[in-house]
Amino acid sequence: MASAVDGINSPVLERFDLCDPQIRFQEALQGLTLYPIAAGEGVPIYYMFRDSRKKGASVWKEKGIRYDITVIPPQVLQGEYIKTIGHFHPHKNDQETYSEYYEVLQGKALFLFQKNTPDQDVEEVVFVYAESGEKVFVPSNYGHVTINPGDETLIICNLVETHFTSDYTAIQEKQGAAYFCVKEGKGETFIPNPNYKNLVIPKIYQASQWPGPIPAATGKDLYDLFLEDPDRFEFLK
User: Fold this and answer.
1) Distances from the Cα of 108 to the Cαs of 140, 181, 194, in angstroms?
2) Looking at residues 193-214, what average pLDDT do you find?
């Protein structure tokens, strides 16, 4: 059981009934980093707990929204901060892909959002820094990568439409997102991925500066906000 893994026993998770996690191993990042990394076969790098409902299970099912938790222990691989492998969302209509809502439960997160051109080169890159308790919205038509640039285990949750399947193809074909986040002294620097033709200057925001469809509510997390009024989250579908 993953409960023995560093970070899983965090007090912020005690109120959840966690299932066994889906585990991403180091080999999943091969070909997606600035510098080559060892295969690390069997070495876990992050953990995903799908449908981590603590209460109101029937409401989540009825509304078709899923609540996931991801745990990313701190690590630096060949100078690059640990990250998720990254993906885009499928289309829900002719113009828009599904959106997603994140909240940091513990640690410090750096979200990379990327919009691509029709031929899958990069059009726009946004970095959003978020700390514990802050919420970050992933708009339609953006792919995204989550980075742990801190020394503490990062724990994030997300609300997303229940049934869609993430698309990893565009990022894998370019061997990563448009930028790599590399440790530099006590901070980080962003190195462009040479596999993209377009060189775009990333926009950098704090979570408090990044717009979302639901105003921040002091003392209320995404889980409770959803149960309080599930219809507010219809935009995720």
Assistant:
1) 24, 14, 27
2) 95
Q: Which helix (H) or strand (E) holds 225?
A: helix 222-228
Measure the CA–CA gap between 97 and 32, rounded to whole angstroms.
23
Q: Are strands 100-106 and 135-138 parallel, antiparallel or unpaired?
A: antiparallel
Instruction: Tell me the pairing of strands 203-206 and 122-131.
Output: parallel
CA pair distance 110, 216, nearest whole angstrom: 19
As a whole number of angstroms, the distance between CA 23 and CA 48 comes to 6
Domains and CATH numbers, the chain: 2-228 (2.60.120.10)
What is the residue type of 229? D
Burial of 230 (0-12, 13-18, 19+ CB in 10 A): middle
Residue 2 pLDDT exceeds 60: no
User: What is the percent of the chain where pLDDT is above 70?
Assistant: 95
67: β partners = 159
Per-residue pLDDT of 5-64, as tens digits, reads 555 678 888 878 788 899 999 999 999 999 999 887 789 999 999 888 777 778 998 999
Give yes or no for a contact between 175 and 187, defined as CB atoms under 8 angstroms apart: no
